[in-house]
Specification:
By secondary structure, this protein is of the alpha+beta class. The protein has one domain: Orthogonal Bundle (Arc Repressor Mutant, subunit A). Helices cover about 45% and strands about 15% of the residues. A hairpin with a 2-residue loop joins strand 1 (about 25) and strand 2 (about 30). This is DNA-directed RNA polymerase III subunit RPC6.
């Protein structure tokens, strides 16, 4: 974190590049806050998957009903009231992406009507909790084993 002073007019909202966004407080990264958000997002997706399993529908309907949109997850987190900072949909999608990289969640994109809550450019991201069939080896659990750009930049 740089110690450069930034002067702003009192009535302007600072850009996220200046403040660090929701994950920073007084130029310090709030790892505990991020971890709590990770846990709560995953808990919500797990409960959605559990409710789908208990519905006694056919497997395809169970799988489809276990998905939740990023808007649903955002709404759940807002209703919990665990954040003093107003979180955006992009903030929640960042948290959901970390869960994808951890192998706890999978994402799919579906076509959605324009104006549908949570849709962007006619597409909607849906997430669901997954349980691994087998535990991954230690090498795969390293960050480079999960990173989607490791083959481009790591040599």
């Amino acid at each position: 974190a740089s110690k450069k002073k930034v002067y702003m007019l009192y009535n302007l909202q600072p850009d996220r590049s200046v403040t660090g966004g929701a994950w920073y407080s007084d130029q310090d990264f709030e790892s505990e806050f991020v971890e709590v958000l990770n846990q709560q997002c995953f808990k919500f997706l797990q409960s959605k998957a559990e409710a789908a399993r208990e519905s006694k529908q056919n497997p395809m309907i169970q799988r489809n009903s276990s998905f939740a949109s990023s808007h649903e997850v955002w709404k759940y987190i807002c209703e919990l009231g665990i954040s003093k900072v107003e979180l955006s949909m992009e903030d929640i999608e960042t948290i959901l992406n970390t869960l994808i990289y951890d192998g706890k969640v999978e994402m799919t994109i579906i076509a959605a009507k324009e104006g549908t809550v949570g849709s962007v450019d006619g597409q909607m991201k849906l997430y669901r909790a997954v349980s691994p069939l087998i535990q991954p080896t230690g090498l795969v659990r390293t960050p480079c084993g999960l990173c989607p750009v490791s083959n481009k930049f790591c040599t």
